[in-house]
Write a structure and sequence with these properties.
The chain is an alpha/beta fold and 450 residues long. The chain has helices spanning 86-103, 161-177, 216-227, 281-293, 313-318, 332-344, 362-370, 387-396, 408-420, and strands at residues 5-9, 12-13, 18-23, 26-31, 38-46, 50-60, 125-132, 138-140, 142-143, 150-151, 191-198, 204-210, 231-238, 250-256, 260-264, 267-271, 303-307, 324-329, 352-356, 375-378, 400-405, 423-431, 441-448. The protein is built from 9 helices and 23 strands. The strands form 5 sheets. Strands 19-18-17-20-21-23-22 form a 7-stranded mixed sheet, with helices on both faces.
Amino acid sequence: MKNDIIQLEITDITPEGFGVGRSGGKVVFVPDTAIGDFIEAKILKELKNHSFAKAESIITPSADRVASDCEVSAKCGGCVFRHISYNAEQKLKKSFVSGALSRIGGLEIPVGETVFGFEHEYRNKVQYPFAPDANGKCIFGYYARRSHRIVEHKKCPLQDKIFTDIAAFCAETANRLGIKAYDEAGGKGILRHLVMRKNRRGELLLCLVVAENTKTLEKLASAVKERFFEVIGIHININKRRDNVIFGEKTFCLFGKETLTDTLCGKSFELSPRAFYQVNAEMAEKLYNKAASYIPKKEEGSVILDLYCGAGTIGLCVAGGNDKLCGVEIIEDAVVNARKNAKLNQRSEENTLFVCGDASVGVKKCRECFGNPEIIIVDPPRKGLDIEVINTVVSASPERVIYISCDPATLARDCAELEKRGYKAQEATPFDLFPRTGHVESVVCLVRRD
Ligand code: SAH
């Protein structure tokens, strides 16, 4: 019952960061706990099959526990694993992937150890929301868990300090210039988000998302560029929507460069503010190399279809000179980047096609230009593949489907569907692109049963 005090052992953790234990035959979820903790907890909410509780005291701590190295980790919604060792986190992430594949997909396939890299300052992209504080002053930070309340901070261990310094300078300058932060509840104010991306050379491209364009934004931008020589361009995106989607439709360059160029797997990529790009470049290289290892090398080349291709990164990293590459992506700016990136990396025009459209048109476009795809790479957003996309993939009957996923649950669901329709999932490998958070990326190779 609510407010009851219970004792329990934590035996598992969910990707949302809830410790899982059992009491009175019921599953109990307790945040901020670790596997092996024996705790005293207070029931906060009791439902039919499970309860939520809060740890009141830790009677015996788990061997996985470490002290948090972030001042705001107890409040901030960004990380969920700052209280356990990074090694324990890697084991958990492997279990998220194997657990989803077996429970949701009914698939018993080998799952490799989590491939990992640096757990600090790995992010190359930061999106800070701005909001007014109680006095109307502009503040920034990350949202608290399951809320839109801003948790202010001076340093975030996931990213280079320059991101926080630039945001702090923007907020300060906005306050000085009288530019108001956007208030979500009232729909009033100007500054909504600051989106920043940094390349390996340390250059930054900024995008200020604003509810409306005003002249004073130019003053803000020029103050930022004066203060931070690393900033090579500032863009404005106008978002008048009342929901919590970050970007609006219109983006323009206020000063400096249109795109930021970064390198991945020895190739160069130009990126617009709106183009998707993996936030952890070091780990993205490892992930793409794994995907490349699943493509059989044929002297005459293969026809490769890269669905959900973003700025063309995966296809351009994995395709050989003789391969024919067709990429499909829904965001137009990203497709423009992909076409430019093909040229930048000396791909022949006859062998390369990037199309703007829904993933379900990919097979048709690829056939029109290069013939039936032999390899299909899919890298969808968290919701996974729509059934129309699965239908077109299956209709093409490629030798292999290489599935890159950021959500083990939809990966498992889609792999199970592909298994029903003539494919065999061979193996899965988790990649920790987002250390200290609950997210895990994985790649599965599916082979056609002949
Ligand atoms: N493969 C790329 C991007 C992966 S993220 C990389 O590794 O960098 C997923 C991409 O799918 C995003 O670029 C997003 O804009 C795109 N996308 C989302 N829905 C889509 C759809 N219905 N059809 C095609 N692309 C879509």
